[in-house]
Amino acid sequence: MTVPAIEADALGKRFGRRAAWALRDCSFRLPAGRVCAVVGPNGAGKSTLLALAAGLLGPTEGTVTVLGTDPATARPEVGFVDQDKPLYPQLTVAETLRMGADLNPGHWDERTAARVVAGGDLDPNRRIRSLSGGQRTRVALALALGKRPALLLLDEPMADLDPLARHELMGVLMGQAAAHGTTIVMSSHVVAELEDTCDHLLLIGGGRVRLAGDTDDLLAAHTRVTAPARTPLDPHTVVESRTTGRQLTALVRPAGPLPGDWRTGAPSLEELVLSYLRNPGAPDQAPPPDTTETAA
Amino acid sequence: MVDYRIDRHSGVATYVQIVQQTKQALRLGLLAPGDKLPTAREVVEATAVNPNTVLKAYRELEREGLVEARRGLGTFVRRSLGAAPADSPLRAELEQWAARAREAGLEREDVAALFTAVLETHYPAPAHPQMQTQAQRHRTRTHHPAPHTTSQGDPS
């Protein structure tokens, strides 16, 4: 059995003793080799979680293990792209890449880094400060990918890219996963974009993990149901239900076989995520950390 | 060589689209026995889909005996499908027929409807369930390639 990419146990973080918890009681296990989406409303704790895994923040309580060790020790094998894409503004693009090569002796992937930058028609002599947000994202991704990390942590990586660059760079990320088995964790608000790229989901809300697991398993555990209004849905767990006229539609986690006269269908990942986001009070389903190591 | 195109709004699972497009290429003779399928990396770089989706599609094609994975070398076509290569006499006849339909003033939709009607007469499709049970996770496995989309051309 391989070492999980990230394992969190009762992880919690608050900024200041009186402040509210940004993240609390967060337990999950992300198997290596997955492409994991981190979704949740603004302020849910996504960025805090990624910064904790990158070792840029220390936990207030609980633990997080990265590639089988603590985040600081794992750092040479972890690529992290912060939401703000911090780079040195006075360096040129070429100098930034040279810095990447110097900081990662022995495992710098020149070709991939150069290719990511070249895809954007970037003049290597331009200074970072003169680049647009999207161009800066490209350079930041080139640095992170050039490091050829075992784990890539990306906080809203696609937010300021145009649709073409988004598609191209998502393709590059998937190519890395295909060629090197890189584990990728990315937060995003564009759920539709994650549907085809991610095979694992971490849904965070109100500072806690609400859903965690391989998307195939999560989708299989939920069913979209249509039945006459006022049909009792128990004993099934109801994530969301709505009544329109004489008809009730719901998203449930079946506790057993469903009655034959209900019309049922499989939800899409987007439907699943939106149902949970719309219903912050819906029961969480975080499978115990030991049972997630399945599926190919 | 095949160039996969993923339609995210088709309602057809992505891996099924890859399977179908491969079969389409086999039917049209664009892929022949011995040809190599693109690597998972090539496909995901071009389409930005998860590598496992491509591998799942290739496994499905392998299970159907259409391709075989050779370790370290790639995935190769084992046998071809159907008897309608791109340059067959049947295709030439259909081309002529389509040209005549156009001369007769038929719109694209008219031709598609006509073709589908004839197709249905000679090749009745199996029943097409509207809603599926939860056990059938993957939507639209029973798909029929009726030409009712107007945006797509010939995969080549």
C-alpha end-to-end distance of chain B: 8 Å
Strand-and-helix sequence of chain B, N→C? HHHEEHH
Helix content of chain B: 40-55%
How many domains, in number, for the residues of chain A?
2
CATH arch. level architecture of the domain at 14-77 in chain B: Orthogonal Bundle
Major sheet characteristics of chain A: 6 strands, mixed
Whole-number mean pLDDT of chain B = 79
Biggest sheet descriptor of chain B = 2 strands, antiparallel
Number of helices of chain B: 5
Structural class of chain A: alpha/beta
Query: Could you tell me the strand content of chain B as a percent range?
Result: 5-15%
Number of E strands of chain B:
2
Shape of chain B: elongated
- Sequence stretches where pLDDT stays below 50 over 5 or more residues of chain B: 128-156
Number of strands of chain A: 13
Distance between the termini of chain A: 13 Å
What value does the Rg of chain A take, in angstroms? 21 Å
Report what the structure shows.
Chain A is an alpha/beta fold. Chain A has two domains: 6-213, P-loop containing nucleotide triphosphate hydrolases (Rossmann fold, 3-Layer(aba) Sandwich), CATH 3.40.50.300; 216-284, no CATH class. In chain A, 29% of the residues lie in helices and 27% in strands. Chain A contains nine helices and 13 strands. In chain A, the strands form three sheets. A six-stranded mixed beta sheet of chain A has the order 5-6-7-3-8-9, with helices on both faces. A four-stranded antiparallel beta sheet of chain A has the order 11-12-10-13, with helices on one face. In chain A, a hairpin with a 6-residue loop joins strand 1 (6-14) and strand 2 (21-30). Chain A is elongated and about 65 Å long. Chain A starts with 5 loop residues before the first strand and ends in an 18-residue tail after the last helix. By secondary structure, chain B is mainly α. Among the domains of chain B are: 14-77, Winged helix-like DNA-binding domain superfamily/Winged helix DNA-binding domain (Arc Repressor Mutant, subunit A); 89-122, no CATH class. In chain B, strands 1-2 form a two-stranded antiparallel sheet. In chain B, helix 1 crosses helix 3 and helix 2 packs across helix 3. The radius of gyration of chain B is 17 Å and the shape is elongated. In chain B, 20% of the residues are buried. Mean pLDDT of chain B is 79; it is low at 128-156. The interface between A and B is medium-sized, with 29 and 25 residues.
